[in-house]
Amino acid sequence: MNNIKIKQIGLTESHLVVGLFNQYRIFYNQFSDIGMAKAFIDERLQHNESIIFLAIDEDTEKPVGFTQLYPKFSSAKLSKNWILNDLYVDEVYRKQGIGEKLIKTAMEFSKTTGATFIQLETAVDNYTAQQLYENIGFEKQGNDEEFFLYKMALNS
Question: Which helix (H) or strand (E) holds 42?
Answer without folding.
Answer: helix 34-46
